[in-house]
C-alpha cells in the first residue's frame, strides 16, 4: 500500500511539474508575442516616417515649382492690370469726347439709299 501511495504521489508531482512547465511556456510565448508586436510597431513607425519624409520631399518639389509658377502668373496679371489701367486713363477722355460728339452733334443728312417718290 505504501508503494501504491508513493506511486500516486510521484504521479501527482510529475503532473504538477508538467503543469508548471506548460504555464511557463505559455508565459514565454506571450512575452515573445508581445515583444514581436512591439518590434513590428517600431518597424512600422520607422517605415511610415520614411515614407512621409519622401512624400514631403516630393510634395515640396512639386508644390515649390507650382508656387513659383503661381507667383509668376500673379506678377504677369498685376502687370497686365496696370497696363490696362494706363491705357484706360490715357484714352478715356478722347473716347468720351468722341461718344458725346456722336450723340450730341447730330447732322441731318439724307441716306444714300433714299429714293424720292413723286
From TrEMBL:
GO terms for molecular function: ATP hydrolysis activity; proton-transporting ATPase activity, rotational mechanism. Keywords: Coiled coil, Hydrogen ion transport, Ion transport, Transport. Subunit of the V1 complex of vacuolar(H+)-ATPase (V-ATPase), a multisubunit enzyme composed of a peripheral complex (V1) that hydrolyzes ATP and a membrane integral complex (V0) that translocates protons. V-ATPase is responsible for acidifying and maintaining the pH of intracellular compartments and in some cell types, is targeted to the plasma membrane, where it is responsible for acidifying the extracellular environment. InterPro entries: V-ATPase_G. One of its GO terms (biological process) is synaptic vesicle lumen acidification. One of its GO terms (cellular component) is synaptic vesicle membrane. Residues 8-50 form a coiled coil. It comes from Rhinopithecus bieti (Black snub-nosed monkey). This is V-type proton ATPase subunit G. Transmembrane segments: none annotated. V-ATPase is a heteromultimeric enzyme made up of two complexes: the ATP-hydrolytic V1 complex and the proton translocation V0 complex. The V1 complex consists of three catalytic AB heterodimers that form a heterohexamer, three peripheral stalks each consisting of EG heterodimers, one central rotor including subunits D and F, and the regulatory subunits C and H. The proton translocation complex V0 consists of the proton transport subunit a, a ring of proteolipid subunits c9c'', rotary subunit d, subunits e and f, and the accessory subunits ATP6AP1/Ac45 and ATP6AP2/PRR. Belongs to the V-ATPase G subunit family. PANTHER family: V-TYPE PROTON ATPASE SUBUNIT G 3, VACUOLAR ATP SYNTHASE SUBUNIT G.
Amino acid at each position: 500500500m505504501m508503494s501504491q501511495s508513493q506511486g500516486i504521489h510521484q504521479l501527482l508531482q510529475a503532473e504538477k511539474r508538467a503543469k508548471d512547465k506548460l504555464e511557463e511556456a505559455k508565459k514565454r510565448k506571450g512575452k515573445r508575442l508581445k515583444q514581436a508586436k512591439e518590434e513590428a510597431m517600431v518597424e512600422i513607425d520607422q517605415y511610415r516616417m520614411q515614407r512621409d519624409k519622401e512624400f514631403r520631399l516630393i510634395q515640396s518639389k512639386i508644390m515649390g515649382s507650382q508656387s513659383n509658377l503661381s507667383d509668376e502668373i500673379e506678377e504677369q496679371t498685376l502687370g497686365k492690370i496696370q497696363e490696362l489701367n494706363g491705357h484706360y486713363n490715357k484714352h478715356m477722355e478722347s473716347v468720351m469726347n468722341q461718344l458725346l460728339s456722336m450723340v450730341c452733334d447730330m447732322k441731318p443728312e439724307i441716306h444714300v439709299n433714299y429714293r424720292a417718290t413723286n
